[in-house]
Write a sequence for this structure.
């Protein structure tokens, strides 16, 4: 680790007239999921460079790998609660965190939040399987969702259910300035967080305008035995099945023999 | 001490899981059942996805019933021929069951069907067992002689394909045992149970097998069926978590051996009443969710 790294290239300091900029780093850009994995806490720290020291707001958004989520609605049929047909939301991130210095609505306007996908209500995901293009009144390309007016209900349910599993979160006080221009935020990954590539984007706002941003990547990977077993189970499922059955038979037999002796 | 399960992708408390495995194993050995009907709901309650719980539990039941079969065989209490005939049906049943389960998962109805099956099956079987064993116990208390066994021939006596079962001292058609095996194989795949709680009464009342070989034979059939189910679930659905089933079976096989020994100290009707009460309670508990208004009208469909 120490020996191989070349000396870091020192970027020329931003000249004063270039305007404000933000930079950030993670304490841990590589999270290993091992047998003892119970979740991870990663600190994101960064700095705002602004010679004029204008009031700044920072918004940090962390998106996990896309994981389709299936939502069912509980419906009562003859006194019994049943599930409706599941609705698949594709493009929903498996993890989403929005942290900011203030409430997002105070930092910037609706349009910017929507465009940058900041905050739980501006998350971009859809249920494409439930949408089709139709021609209505001679106008083509009308996207019709079969969910119709219930669509927002389902959408809010996705966010709410993921929040309950600690996979989605939004906190308007989670980015704190610890010193002049120096800020930090914490990323809490629960044990249920999906594995894959995460993207953290850090946006700097001044007077309601996004003036600078930065992107970082974070990878959550199964390592060691966990990774080996997972790949084994998914790449050679029949062999994996045979081995697990053999394991069951041998341990059952071993226990019987051990107890007969004693 | 927490343990991250690679297939279930959740972190669980290892000592708790080990103790649960041992407790369920003890019950399994005591009553001569697989114990899956207890373990699967507990695993789901611990946050393990139902599909993984059902599939991994099959591996655990396979191990503990293998261990018990070996113990029963030494007492000569296993009719291997009858067990094999039933297991042939069980093989067909588990193929069908794994496919049904796959379809139910796609439809998002897996948990609903599992709850309904638990309520109906465990509720009925539990109630019958409690009723039946309490009658026997009451008769004994009153000092009445036990009800004479009815020697009426079962309705299916005339069926073809007869086969000799020397161990059970029977000469019967293979159709009822095969049909029983098919049914239990389907249940085993859908509910993550071995099906002992259905097999044992069915073998006594429907097949009229001698009580001395019923438990050992049902365990033999369960061991074969659950091995097959866990193989098929792994191959077809990739839902067997080998870490989970290993932790469960370490506790399970030890518990099963202790349970099998303890069972010799109790009267069979008392054991049956106790098992009936457990079965009934689990069925009611699993079915209660069907009638209680859910706190959130939406839910994530477990994959």
């Amino acid at each position: 680790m120490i020996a191989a790294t070349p000396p870091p290239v020192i970027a020329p300091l931003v000249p004063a007239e270039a305007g404000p900029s933000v930079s950030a780093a993670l304490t841990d850009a590589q999270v290993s999921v091992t047998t003892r994995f119970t979740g991870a806490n990663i600190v994101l720290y960064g700095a705002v460079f602004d010679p004029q020291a204008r009031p700044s707001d920072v918004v940090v958004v962390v998106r996990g790998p896309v994981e389709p989520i299936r939502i069912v609605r509980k419906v009562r049929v003859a006194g019994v609660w049943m599930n409706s047909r599941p609705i698949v939301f594709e493009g929903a991130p498996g993890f989403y965190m929005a942290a900011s210095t203030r409430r997002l609505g105070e930092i910037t306007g609706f349009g910017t939040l929507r465009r940058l996908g900041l905050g739980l209500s501006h998350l971009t995901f859809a249920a494409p399987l439930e949408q089709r293009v139709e021609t209505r009144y001679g106008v083509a390309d009308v996207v019709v969702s079969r969910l119709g007016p219930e669509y927002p209900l389902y959408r809010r349910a996705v966010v709410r259910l993921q929040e309950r599993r600690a996979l989605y979160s939004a906190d308007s006080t989670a980015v704190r300035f610890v010193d002049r221009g120096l800020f930090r935020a914490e990323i809490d990954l629960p044990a249920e967080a999906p594995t894959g590539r995460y993207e953290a984007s850090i946006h700097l706002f001044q007077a309601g305008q996004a003036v600078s941003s930065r992107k970082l990547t974070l990878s959550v990977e199964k390592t060691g035995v966990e990774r080996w077993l997972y790949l084994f189970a998914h790449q050679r499922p029949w062999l994996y099945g045979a081995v697990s059955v053999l394991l069951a038979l041998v341990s059952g037999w071993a226990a019987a023999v051990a107890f007969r002796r004693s | 001490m927490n343990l991250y399960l690679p297939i279930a992708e959740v972190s669980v408390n290892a000592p708790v899981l080990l103790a649960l495995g041992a407790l369920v194993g003890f019950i399994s050995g005591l009553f001569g059942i697989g114990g899956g009907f207890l373990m699967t709901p507990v695993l789901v309650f611990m946050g393990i996805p139902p599909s993984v719980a059902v599939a991994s539990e099959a591996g655990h039941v396979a191990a503990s019933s293998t261990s018990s079969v070996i113990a029963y065989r030494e007492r000569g209490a296993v009719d291997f021929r009858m067990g094999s005939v039933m297991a042939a049906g069980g093989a067909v049943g588990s193929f069908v069951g794994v496919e049904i389960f796959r379809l139910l998962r796609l439809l998002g109805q897996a948990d609903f069907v599992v709850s309904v099956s638990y309520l109906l099956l465990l509720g009925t079987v539990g109630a019958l067992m409690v009723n039946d064993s309490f009658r026997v116990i009451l008769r004994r208390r009153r000092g009445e002689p036990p009800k004479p066994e009815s020697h009426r021939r079962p309705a299916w006596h005339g069926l073809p394909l007869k086969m000799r079962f020397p161990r059970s001292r029977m000469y019967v058609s293979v159709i009822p045992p095969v049909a029983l095996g098919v049914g239990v194989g389907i249940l085993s795949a859908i509910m993550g149970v071995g099906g002992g709680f259905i097999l044992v009464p069915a073998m006594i009342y429907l097949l009229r097998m001698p009580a001395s070989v019923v438990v050992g034979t049902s365990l033999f059939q369960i061991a074969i069926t659950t091995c097959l189910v866990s193989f098929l679930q792994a191959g077809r659905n990739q839902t067997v978590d080998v870490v989970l089933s290993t932790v469960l079976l370490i506790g399970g096989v030890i518990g099963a051996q202790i349970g099998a020994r303890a069972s010799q100290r109790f009267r069979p009707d008392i054991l049956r009443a106790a098992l009936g009460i457990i079965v009934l309670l689990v069925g009611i508990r699993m079915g209660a969710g069907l009638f209680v208004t859910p706190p959130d009208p939406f839910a994530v469909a477990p994959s």
